[in-house]
RNA sequence: GACCCGUUGGUGAAGCGGUUUAACACGCCGCCCUCUCAAGGCGGUAGUUUCAUGGGUUCAAAUCCCAUACGGGCCA
């Protein structure tokens, strides 16, 4: 058996060779400086906030350089794979409106000429390259079992050696061909390992776009490149995929920084050009005074659909992502109104090397600001979309009472200093329910009367107001003048300053009177501008609501 | 245990050897405006013999170097 036949024997049923694939995926024809990036999630559960973060960052990097942004599914760990994992990823990118140029677009379809973009569909490709390494004696089959590896580890711990399958510990490294063939014919299971030429005592230096200069020992461990199930390990798949897809910049979590020597080594052994690397700090969470990466398993809020459920506009989430990536984002974004999140020129240099703590307060703030800039109609539509999925009862009311809803949402909206009282779509219902008759049936004890609670006094105020002062046609100024007049007539202070100077001279003040009217009309002591609320309610509803107290 | 990365107020951070009495934003607090709330205005909070700690280099260090501590990661 020559080496070629040997490779065929070890990795059987491979249709094509490396030459075929090199031709199939030619160099991309892009302008100078174009960045080709990918986000490469695993379908192992819900879509993580960090995936979205990387997606948005990569999207901007590619778009602003005239490059390409790909989505690649890393599903080589079939044990951890979750049903619908892939569809969820696709849906997440769609929902957050992060569009990729290439990658899967449904369970069965994908776009782009450098696919397949799902690793489990690339077996033949990996096989071809594994074979090429075996042919050159740069990879070999290994029969070591998990148990034996465990023992080796123990042995190394005891003897205080570095842990791993390397050098003299890599006993399968020089197994004669005949022995290998015999073992396999006997049905022994094997994996393919890289025959690492590295020397741990040699340091290599490389430049990470985020971390800067990094120095590490060369890799000398014979890592597995092809597992028993015929699928590659992360290390190998990364190198092959990004080579064939012509990725120019590898952006990924900094947990991968320590495997960089392996990846660089693999590139060299395969004769590939080494791409640029950018190891991005993870998003952290504080728990019991300690920081840790937000995790899929422990932190349900890391699920990107949590924000959807909470009704946080995607724009707010994206703004937050950008702020985390480059802190000059906000300043840039606020320069003028034409700025779009997707056009933000993100840079590696401005990425922080340490992980940032996830800050819900900040997202809420961005959400408030974003919502405040919407028109009432836009806001209404977004609330409705949200409610149809998460609060159908409210959705029905919104559809029925669209005019009133828009009017109340429109109070003090627009202009340069809009109200900012809604922090999410889910926040709206509890803020405006009282305007709708369908929802407005509070019990008497639920009315939030404040300083004036005497039913007799309340009755007098409401009656006087309705009979002598209320006129639906009044403008806000006239309306408020009348409130003040009434206030004085009833022995209260119309002017707050005067009241503050001599509170003992009055029964109360104009705020107390307004509160009675407000509470009688809405049951709540805090609402937006009372005049607007009364205008929306209209005479009939006001009379009906006041009647309860008269 | 080996190797690697990090550490500026409660949070995100600016800072890249002298222009720093360490920007800006979020949060928090107070006052003003005011019919309540929100928004807005003003001020404060909070790192302030300080940039984790200790040494060093330098005329000069948050900024450069080394060590330690503590976080984080990775290998198994």
Layout: helices, strands, pairs:
Elements: H1 3-10, H2 18-24, E1 36-39, H3 49-63, E2 68-71, H4 85-95, E3 103-104, E4 110-111, H5 123-135, E5 139-142, H6 146-158, H7 177-185, E6 191-194, E7 203-208, E8 212-217, E9 224-226, H8 234-244, E10 249-253, H9 260-270, E11 276-280, E12 284-287, E13 290-293, H10 304-310, H11 314-325, H12 329-334, H13 360-373, H14 376-390, H15 392-400, H16 402-409, H17 429-432, H18 455-469, H19 476-489, H20 496-501, H21 510-522, H22 530-547
Parallel strand pairs: 1-2, 10-11
Antiparallel strand pairs: 3-4, 5-6, 6-9, 7-8, 12-13
Helix pairs in contact: 1-5, 3-11, 8-9, 11-13, 14-15, 14-16, 18-21, 21-22
The protein binds one RNA strand of 76 nucleotides through helix 6, strand 8, strand 13, helix 13 and helix 19.
Describe this structure in words.
It is a single chain. The chain is mainly alpha-helical. The protein is elongated, with a radius of gyration of 33 Å. It has helices at residues 3-10, 18-24, 49-63, 85-95, 123-135, 146-158, 177-185, 234-244, 260-270, 304-310, 314-325, 329-334, 360-373, 376-390, 392-400, 402-409, 429-432, 455-469, 476-489, 496-501, 510-522, 530-547, and strands at residues 36-39, 68-71, 103-104, 110-111, 139-142, 191-194, 203-208, 212-217, 224-226, 249-253, 276-280, 284-287, 290-293. It binds one RNA strand of 76 nucleotides through helix 6, strand 8, strand 13, helix 13 and helix 19.
């Amino acid at each position: 058996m020559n080496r070629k036949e040997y490779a065929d024997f070890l990795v059987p049923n491979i249709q094509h060779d490396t030459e075929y694939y090199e031709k199939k995926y030619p160099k991309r024809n892009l302008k100078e400086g174009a960045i080709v990036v990918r986000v490469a999630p695993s379908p192992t559960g819900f879509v993580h906030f960090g995936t979205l973060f990387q997606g948005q960052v990569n999207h901007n990097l590619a778009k602003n350089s005239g490059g390409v942004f790909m989505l690649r599914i890393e599903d080589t760990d079939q044990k951890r794979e979750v049903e619908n994992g892939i569809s969820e990823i696709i849906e997440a990118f769609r929902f957050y409106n992060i569009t990729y140029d290439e990658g899967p677009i449904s369970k069965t379809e994908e776009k782009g000429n450098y696919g397949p973009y799902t690793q489990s569909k690339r077996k033949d490709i990996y096989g071809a390259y594994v074979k090429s390494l075996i042919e050159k004696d740069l990879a070999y089959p290994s029969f070591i079992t998990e148990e034996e590896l465990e023992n080796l580890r123990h042995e190394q711990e005891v003897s205080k050696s570095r842990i791993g399958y390397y050098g003299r510990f890599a006993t399968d490294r020089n197994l004669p061909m005949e022995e290998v063939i015999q073992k396999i014919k006997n049905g022994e299971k094997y994996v393919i390992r890289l025959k690492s030429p590295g020397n741990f005592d040699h340091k290599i230096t490389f430049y990470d776009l985020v971390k800067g200069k990094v120095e590490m020992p060369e890799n000398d461990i014979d890592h597995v490149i092809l597992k028993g199930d015929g699928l590659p390990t992360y290390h190998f798949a990364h190198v092959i995929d990004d080579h064939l897809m012509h990725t120019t910049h590898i952006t990924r979590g900094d947990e991968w920084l320590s495997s960089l020597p392996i990846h660089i080594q693999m590139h060299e052994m395969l004769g590939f050009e080494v791409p640029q690397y950018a190891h991005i700090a993870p998003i952290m969470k504080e728990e019991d005074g300690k920081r840790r990466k937000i995790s899929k398993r422990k932190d349900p809020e890391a699920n990107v659909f949590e924000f959807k459920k909470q009704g946080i506009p995607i724009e707010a989430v994206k703004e937050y992502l950008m702020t985390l990536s480059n802190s000059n984002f906000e300043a840039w974004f606020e320069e003028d109104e034409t700025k779009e999140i997707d056009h933000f020129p993100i840079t590696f240099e401005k990425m922080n090397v340490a992980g940032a703590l996830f800050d819900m307060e900040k997202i809420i703030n961005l959400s408030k600001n974003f919502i405040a800039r919407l028109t009432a109609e836009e806001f209404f539509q977004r609330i409705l979309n949200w409610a149809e999925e998460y609060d159908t009862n409210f959705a029905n009311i919104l559809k029925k009472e669209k005019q009133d809803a828009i009017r109340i949402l429109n109070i003090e909206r627009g202009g340069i200093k809009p109200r900012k009282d809604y922090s999410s779509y889910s926040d709206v219902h509890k803020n405006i329910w009282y305007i709708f008759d369908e929802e407005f049936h509070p019990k008497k004890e639920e009315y939030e009367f404040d300083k004036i609670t005497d039913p007799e006094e309340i009755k007098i105020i409401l009656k006087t107001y309705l009979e002598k002062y209320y006129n639906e046609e009044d403008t806000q100024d006239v309306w408020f003048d009348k409130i003040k007049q009434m206030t004085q007539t009833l022995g209260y202070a119309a002017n707050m300053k005067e009241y503050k100077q001599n509170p003992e001279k009055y029964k109360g003040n104009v705020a107390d009177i307004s509160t009675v009217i407000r509470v009688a009309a809405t049951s709540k002591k805090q609402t937006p501008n009372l005049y607007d609320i009364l205008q929306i309610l209209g005479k009939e509803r006001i009379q009906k609501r006041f009647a309860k107290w008269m």
